[in-house]
Amino acid sequence: MRFFWYKLFFFASLVCFSQEKKEYKIVTVAFYNLENLFGIEDDPNTAYNDHIIRAESFYNQEVYNAKLKNLAKAISDIGYSHTGATPVIVGLCEAENRKVIEDLINQESLAASDYGIIHYDSPDRRGIDVTLIYKKSVFIPTHHQKRELILYHNSNILQRIYTRDQLVVTGLLDGEEIHLIVNHWPSRSGGEVRSRPNRIKAAQLTKKITDSLYKLNPYAKILIMGDFNDDPTSESIKKVLGTRNKKENLSMMEFYNPMEEMYRKGLGTLAWMDRWNLFDQIIVSAGLVSSDYSGFQFYKAGIFNPNYLANPKGRFKGYPYRAYGDGGFTGGYSDHFPVYTLLIKEND
Q1: Which of 51, 128, 270, 301 is the most exposed place for a label (fewest CB within 10 A)?
Q2: ∠ at Cα 208 (206, 214), nearest 5°?
Q3: CA–CA gap between residue 227 and residue 182 (Å, rounded)
Q4: What does the alpha-carbon distance between residue 116 and residue 46 come to, in Å, rounded to a whole number?
Q5: 116: exposed, middle or buried (C-beta count within 10 Å: 0-12, 13-18, 19+)?
Q6: d(CA 298, CA 286)
Q7: pLDDT digits (tens, 9 = 90+) for 59-95
Q8: Do the beta carbons of residue 140 and residue 179 sit within 8 Å?
Q9: Strand partners, 284
């Protein structure tokens, strides 16, 4: 009799366990610096008109087609090993205009994903913009705007620095509201210390945007992504944005930066003078770091750096396989590795 009741309890427990087993949906959100994705036709409104990158050895129809194909291949693979699908949302930078993004998403490896585009022309004199592409079947934009970053040379209001806008997008990801801020902060041209105030200003603008979102909803789900031209431990990220490197005890309206731990381990998305930097990051709000999986939550983040995206030989072996070198087009992809984060939620 004791054995009978033991068996009954065992099978009842098994049934309960099977009933509690849950299925989850996982999606990829990514960011990629496209390394000067310019069209064939000169744009007289940008500094790259008559620039060396327009030279025949660097840029012609064949090179343009090859670069588009390479970038599309890389984007289609980001997160695929985890989700079996292309990313649902990708932030992009260093795109000349909307036309080059249209050409990109119409490549064979991306066409079936049916991406939409959110793009504004930035005042940047190089003619490069930030952009967002999204799967129209999964993400529905409800509002978007560009926020201008106003900078001056040495605080001289007569000497304006024209740089990239910040792109702010709100939408419904599988029916759930999320906010995305796509960035390409000012470069380190002239030296890190000398150029640091410009990135501090960029961080302050991002902080102002997130504060306004939190004012509407303290539990807002926000992803800040971009090429920040700063590392996860830089003042602009750690102090101005106030990012944390641990998920535990994250307070409301704070941000978790999963890239900081990677950086401390020596990982990066670009290399210069035998030193790795992790300028490309995706930072998530506290609203995406909880145990409530009825809505999307942060699962994991990573640097997408398969062998084919790395330089195969020579002095720069292992560095990102950039598209342009001293001799023109290299056959490569970009001088940055893309980054991604996986979001997960219970199936309805």
Answers
A1: 51
A2: 105
A3: 9
A4: 25
A5: middle
A6: 9
A7: 789 999 999 999 999 999 999 999 999 999 999 999 9
A8: no
A9: 223, 256
**pTM for this one?**
0.91
Residue ranges and CATH numbers for the domains of the chain are 24-343 (3.60.10.10)
CA distance linking residue 219 with residue 144, whole number of Å: 20
Q: What is the residue whose two structure tokens read 């941000």?
A: 255
Q: Is 87 helix (H, G, I), strand (E, B) or coil?
A: coil
How many angstroms separate the CA atoms of 263 and 269, rounded?
9
Cβ-contact 338, 280 below 8 angstroms: yes
What's the pLDDT at 16?
43
Phi, psi torsion values for 93, nearest 5 degrees: -140, 170
β-pairing verdict for 222-227 and 280-285: antiparallel
303: number of Cβ within 10 Å: 19
Write out the two tokens for 322: 């950039």
Answer for the pair 141, 170: CB distance below 8 angstroms, yes or no: yes
pLDDT digits (tens, 9 = 90+) for 39-64: 887 766 666 554 555 555 567 899 99
pLDDT of residue 270: 97
Model pLDDT, residue 46: 65
Q: CA-to-CA distance for 42 and 39, rounded, in angstroms?
A: 7
What distance lies between CA 159 and its chain's CA centroid?
A: 31
Q: How far apart are CA 71 and CA 94, in angstroms?
A: 12
Give dist(CA 53, CA 48) in Å, integer.
Answer: 7
* pLDDT the model gives residue 96: 92
